[in-house]
Write a structure and sequence with these properties.
Strand content: under 5%
Number of strands: 0
Radius of gyration: 20 Å
Distance between the termini: 30 Å
Helix content: over 70%
Number of domains: 1
Length: about 325
């Protein structure tokens, strides 16, 4: 499966790169993304870096699975799914701030898995909030996920009042130097852009208004698949350890919240799609790697067929 995903991803990414005209887009308001974005103005450089980042995300996901034995059977399905999900649309071909933030969110998942029932609650809260703040320097909308982190820390039995304070410290320790730099260089307006650029009209204009028929079909199938996985986790995951069940709840909550944010929160909403795909990759891999019933196997092949159709959907607009 891993070899198939690598070969298929290479082919489809090359086809996308050769046949589509790309326009750089993404979070222009990220403090660190602004200077970095000039490096990726060359499409070939951007394409290569994006491909390397996707490979890095797959390796990191595989490492998380190995370290915490997320899937109790030996499998390479998780990195394969990550590679396939981030190679199914031209939007993933060029390097973007969302790609960097998603890699950092994978680091957050790594930290959260290690935080389960830890006595050092405030240390883990500080770590995840620090990485979240670092990601928000590329896509400021990532800061919206701070309350989500509090909930998932609770799911990991790693949240108390000290953790709450530590999470604010993790944000402060990065944003205070950023504020100081812009203040001392007399460019405070630049620092405030991510916070003042959002208005009520933008919030009222829900992002799902921008979805076309193809997007709705993909979203509908994804929600149905997610519902099947959640139901299966509730009914059949008694064989997994309590820790693994907590991981599944963490990932499910993250995926659901990010899907809702993608649909309703019109603030750099693409980053929420990226994070939902990462969480979904873990859930999909866990579900299909442990599939025993005939219905689950059939659903796997149906999902693969649907995925291939999705990959060729952009060519309809050529």
């Amino acid at each position: 499966m891993l070899i198939f995903s690598i070969v298929f991803a290479i082919i489809i990414r090359l086809v996308y790169f050769l046949y589509f005209d790309f326009v750089h887009s993404g979070s222009a308001n990220g403090y660190l993304w602004k200077p970095l974005s000039t490096i990726f103005t060359n499409h070939l450089v951007s394409f290569i870096c994006s491909s390397l980042f996707i490979a890095g995300m797959a390796i990191l996901a595989a490492n998380i699975n190995t370290t915490y034995v997320f899937i109790r059977r030996k499998t390479v399905l998780l990195p394969a799914v990550v590679i396939l999900l981030f190679s199914c649309h031209p939007r993933f071909m060029l390097m973007s701030a969302e790609c960097i933030s998603t890699m950092l969110f994978l680091v957050i998942i790594y930290i959260l898995f290690g935080a389960y029932n830890s006595t050092s609650k405030q240390i883990y809260a500080f770590r995840v909030s620090f990485i979240l703040a670092l990601g928000s320097l590329f896509t400021p909308a990532l800061l919206v996920c701070l309350p989500v982190l509090w909930v998932v820390l609770g799911i990991m039995r790693c949240f108390n009042f000290k953790s709450l304070l530590a999470s604010f410290l993790g944000i402060f320790i990065l944003y205070f130097p950023a504020f100081s730099y812009y203040f001392l260089t007399d460019s405070l307006d630049t620092f405030l852009i991510p916070f003042v650029s959002v208005n009520m009209q933008q919030l009222a204009d829900f992002s799902f208004y921008q979805l076309n028929v193809g997007n709705w079909i993909i979203l509908g199938f994804s929600i149905i698949l997610l519902a099947v996985i959640v139901s299966d986790n509730y009914i059949n995951r008694h064989k997994d350890k309590i820790r693994i069940r907590a991981y599944l709840r963490l990932l499910t909550y993250t995926a659901v919240i990010c899907i809702l944010a993608y649909l309703f929160l019109n603030i750099d909403f693409i980053v929420y799609l990226f994070i939902a795909l990462v969480a979904g990759a873990f859930l999909l891999s866990h579900f299909f790697a442990l599939a025993e019933k005939r219905g689950s196997v059939i659903l796997f092949y149906v999902s693969m067929f649907f995925y291939i159709l999705v990959c060729f959907l952009p060519f309809l607009s050529l």
